[in-house]
Design a protein that fits this description.
With 414 residues, the protein is mainly beta. Helices cover 2% and strands 42% of the residues.
């Protein structure tokens, strides 16, 4: 049951340091946003923030944030049925890729769509890449930054996992002809596919998150490398110089004994470092700790953790409602409206809000700002659940709630 709060009660719950709220938008009453957030600069100079929703009925929403004090929803689309969600999206120029994941295996649509968003108010479908199958739930995340390849967390019709939790793997999809996407390569963790010569990997006795990829990050600085958060397999670096035959370069795995669910592996290229986050997936601190790690990657075949991003005492947040722990990062994507830094890291921590870190001293990261909105009036958890974040080139922060809160536009006042 929702815990209805008045605006005054919401404000009373807000925690802020070196960040202030510019504006808030409930997204026409459908404020639950997933892990898809990206900004388009249109041909006529407008700035459109694209958001993928956490669950049905809505597919994606476009918000005109040209005037950040008055964000306006310009389009909001519906999913075909309640058994699918569009958790993730990415934008390059006037093309948007949107992932579709189903609740059950064997259901459609499962895979991703490409849309022409040159006119944001009327997105036009270019093509659908089908990733459905008897053991597939489709695509959880897309990574699309170069206009040529979609890097996909996905199942397929011909992939049978050795364990039901391992139903997705890494796929590289060639979209240079956007009307006809074709697979260019694939890789899965050894032992997770029926027929592998390697034995299945070990499972955590209590928190089995699965051996499958989450974020698959590839940057123009190193187009021959894929940096993958591979859930219980930890951080994986692949050599994808030959896209048809990816090869493992490195694997830093800590589950078991730690809880796994490695979500994001973000390189800081000028520093030879990685920021690695584990996703909290349980309420009330059940799967604590869920951390953001600073990792020395000077020798990429031997990754060495050197510190973690500091968090407030978990006792202060685990009973606040919902999840508390690391999740998404602003991932230094290329593009005209994306902030990029190898010293400042911005991440989301569910009921811990959005938090900003200075990692210029990798051995002693410092928190320099945070914003924790009060619970939205329709929050089913009685607390905010900040799910994802985008930082534009002006260092304005766009944070979204997993359930009902919608979009929060913030200014750092450091």
């Amino acid at each position: 049951m929702s815990k209805t709060l008045t605006p005054q009660a919401q404000a009373a719950q807000t925690l802020a340091w070196n960040m202030k709220l510019i504006s808030h938008n409930e997204l026409a009453g459908f404020g639950g946003v997933g892990e898809g957030i990206n900004m388009q600069v249109t041909d006529d100079g407008r700035r459109i923030l694209w958001l993928a929703h956490e669950s049905a009925p809505k597919n994606f929403t476009g918000v005109d944030v040209t005037d950040v004090k008055n964000p306006k929803v310009v389009v909001q689309t519906d999913l075909p049925h309640a058994g699918v969600r569009s958790n993730s999206l990415d934008v390059v120029g006037n093309i948007m890729a949107v992932a579709y994941q189903t609740k059950e295996v064997g259901v459609k649509p499962a895979g991703f769509d490409l849309f022409d968003i040159s006119k944001p108010e009327t997105p036009k479908l270019i093509s659908h890449f089908d990733a459905s199958g008897p053991h597939s739930r489709g695509a959880h995340c897309v990574w699309f930054v170069d206009g040529e390849y979609v890097h996909l967390t996905s199942g397929s019709a011909d992939f049978e996992p050795t364990h039901p939790n391992d139903f997705q793997f890494y796929r590289i999809i060639d979209v240079r002809n956007p009307s006809k996407p074709v697979e260019a390569g694939r890789w899965w963790y050894p032992g997770t596919h029926v027929g592998d010569k390697e034995p299945p990997p070990p499972r955590h006795p209590r928190f089995d998150g699965g051996y499958r990829p989450h974020n698959t990050n590839i940057y123009p600085e190193r187009p021959d490398r894929a940096y993958i958060g591979y859930l219980d397999a930890g951080a994986v670096i692949l050599d994808i110089s030959d896209k048809a035959h990816p090869k493992m370069v490195s694997n830093w795995r800590f589950s078991p004994p730690f809880n796994g669910f490695t979500h994001t592996v973000m390189p800081l290229f000028s520093r030879d470092m990685l920021i690695v986050t584990d996703e909290c997936t349980k309420d009330d601190g059940e799967d604590w700790p869920k951390l953001g790690w600073v990792v020395d990657a000077r020798v990429e075949s031997n990754l060495v953790p050197v510190s973690t991003l500091p968090l407030p005492p978990h006792e202060s947040f685990i009973k606040r409602g919902g999840r508390f722990g690391a999740h998404n990062l602003h991932e230094n994507l290329p593009g005209p409206a994306s902030f990029r830094s190898d010293n400042i890291v911005v991440g989301t921590f569910f009921n811990g809000g959005v938090r900003v870190y200075d990692v210029s001293n990798q051995y002693q990261p410092k928190e320099i700002a945070y914003f924790v909105p009060g619970a939205h009036r329709l929050s089913p958890k009685g607390a905010i659940q900040i799910n994802d974040v985008w930082v534009d080139e002006n260092q304005l922060v766009y944070a979204v709630d997993r359930f009902s809160g919608g979009l929060y536009i913030l200014e750092m006042t450091i």
